[in-house]
Q: What sequence folds into this?
């Protein structure tokens, strides 16, 4: 079954606003990761949070993980037009060896 | 220097043809992957190799055959192409010391079968 269902499917905000994307998954995980994909490009790793961590920061990114609810959120603060992209969460299950991706959230930041 | 490079970037071919996509990584990673991204942007793992050994094969038709001549290369050969094979194929690599760490992706190969 598919891991990493994301919500919302699409998000449109003004430059300077914060963007929050959510991810839910179904089975136990070792870690959860967030990736960005610009149009026509490959995925770029943003941040990894391990199953025993609850929150992690990297620059304007803040990720939370709630393993009891099997959910994670990605917050991008003070968004910029350059943040316009698709954002994917990916989970590594207990079995390891692969990442399973969600369907992604399309973020559009208007300048 | 490009970390994960795949060629070609675009591939247009007719149904029934056989084609290959090449992938190389210069990161020294032990594990490489092929993912397929469909028109709805959903990414699905196809294969995973660790040190040239196949470790994951996710119910992919036999027409798809990965080949890893060494741990820096993972090529994908597709026989008898079908319309439904049209998608973007991504190669990726990661270092796996007992678990997946961040994965590095190539730029993708957009395959169009006509």
A:
């Amino acid at each position: 079954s598919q891991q990493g269902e994301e919500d919302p499917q699409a998000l449109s905000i003004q430059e300077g606003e914060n963007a929050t994307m959510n991810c839910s998954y179904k089975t136990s995980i070792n870690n959860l990761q967030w990736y960005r994909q610009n149009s026509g490009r490959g995925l770029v790793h943003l941040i990894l949070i391990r199953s025993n961590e609850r929150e992690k920061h990297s620059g304007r990114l803040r990720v939370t993980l709630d393993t009891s609810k099997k959910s994670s959120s990605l917050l991008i603060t003070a968004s910029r037009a350059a943040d316009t992209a698709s954002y994917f969460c990916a989970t590594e299950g207990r079995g390891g060896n692969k990442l399973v991706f969600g369907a992604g959230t399309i973020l559009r930041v208007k300048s | 220097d490009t970390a994960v490079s795949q060629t070609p970037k675009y591939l247009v071919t007719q149904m029934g043809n056989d084609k290959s996509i090449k992938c190389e990584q210069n990161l020294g990673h032990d594990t490489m992957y092929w993912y397929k991204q469909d028109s709805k942007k959903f990414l699905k793992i196809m294969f995973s190799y660790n040190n040239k050994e196949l470790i994951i094969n996710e119910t992919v038709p036999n027409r798809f055959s990965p080949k890893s001549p060494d741990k820096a290369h993972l090529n994908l050969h597709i026989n008898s192409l079908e319309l439904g094979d049209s998608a973007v194929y991504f190669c990726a690599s990661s270092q796996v010391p007992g678990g997946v760490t961040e994965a590095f992706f190539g730029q993708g190969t957009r395959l169009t079968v006509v």
About this structure: Residues 38 and 87 of chain B are 5 Å apart (CA to CA). The mean pLDDT of chain B is 92. The radius of gyration of chain B is 13 Å.
